[in-house]
Amino acid sequence: MPDAALTLDNITCTFVSHEGGQQRYTAVKDATLAIAPGEFVSVVGPTGCGKSTLLNVGAGLLAPSSGQVKVFGEPLLGINSRAGYMFQGEALLPWRNALDNVTTGLEFAHVPRADAQRLGNEWLKRVGLGGFENRYPHQMSGGMRKRAMLAQTLIRDPDIILMDEPFSALDVQTRQLMENEVLALWMAKRRAVLFITHDLDEAIAMSDRVVVLSAGPATHPIGEFNIDLARPRDVAEVRTNPRFVELHRAIWDVLREEVLKGYAQQKRA
Ligand SMILES: Nc1ncnc2c1ncn2[C@@H]1O[C@H](COP(=O)(O)OP(=O)(O)OP(=O)(O)O)[C@@H](O)[C@H]1O
């Protein structure tokens, strides 16, 4: 069997709070998750359960307290250079136009400027921003900024794509358009994707597999579902498929209780 693209093996993350004494909070405990090359995996879980923490561990931005991360079979030490990371918030530099934002990563990788600009323009076209290369972030809509961020993440053709609720700030229509665009780009390249979302519909519509996390503290996977819906998929149309409805019910059965627990904890906090 080929190595998984990304393996999170028995990961535990304990944070130490320095406010008011040395309080410890174990956000993630003994979490194991593997993503095959070319596989699209979504992780869903209640708010604040530890989804971003797991993604940060996979990106090499956060060292786990225990456990191991492997990238194509090799232990990860430091930043995961085979991964591209698309954050939840705004990641564009306000003083750079769309083209210069999209090519930032290439610049860090010392790609010659002419090559970077050619690739940048190609990617801007691919995400529907052809002709907008000179726009600055404040001159773009939320959807346009997300498109630029997508191009910024994919331009280096990473083997692993990590996405943390990338479209949560968008209106429903723009969001569905972007989801379809991501699927089309993914179908063309078939990279490993770890997609974090709290939206179960989005997770099912996009993924090959949906992993459900327990409410925190000590979050870990408690359910895993293969999404056997045919591809290519249209994220809006697939929601009316009877199998989608069936999968939604089965996953929600597991997720519901965790969401309620997470909600109760937030109210207590
Ligand atoms: N650096 C840190 N120091 C202390 N606690 C942290 C740190 N990072 C995360 N936490 C805590 O760990 C828990 C999990 O946070 P995380 O951001 O991973 O959750 P999430 O599931 O991604 O949340 P959301 O759904 O709101 O995006 C939270 O209780 C959070 O407060």
TrEMBL record:
Check the record and name the CDD domains matching this protein.
ABC_NrtD_SsuB_transporters (cd03293)
Span of domain ABC transporter? 6-240
Spell out the molecular function terms from Gene Ontology. ATP binding; ATP hydrolysis activity
Which SUPFAM superfamilies has this protein been placed in?
Answer: P-loop containing nucleoside triphosphate hydrolases
Alphabetically sorted, this entry's keywords are: ATP-binding, Cell membrane, Membrane, Nucleotide-binding, Transport
Transcription: is it a keyword of this entry? no
Checking SMART domains in the record gives: AAA
- InterPro entries, A to Z: AAA+_ATPase, ABC_transporter-like_ATP-bd, ABC_transporter-like_CS, ABC_transporter_ATP-bind, P-loop_NTPase
**Keyword 4Fe-4S listed:** no
| Family per similarity comment | Belongs to the ABC transporter superfamily.
What is this protein's name? NitT/TauT family transport system ATP-binding protein
Species name for this entry?
Answer: Paralcaligenes ureilyticus
Give the taxonomic lineage as stored in the record.
Answer: Bacteria, Pseudomonadati, Pseudomonadota, Betaproteobacteria, Burkholderiales
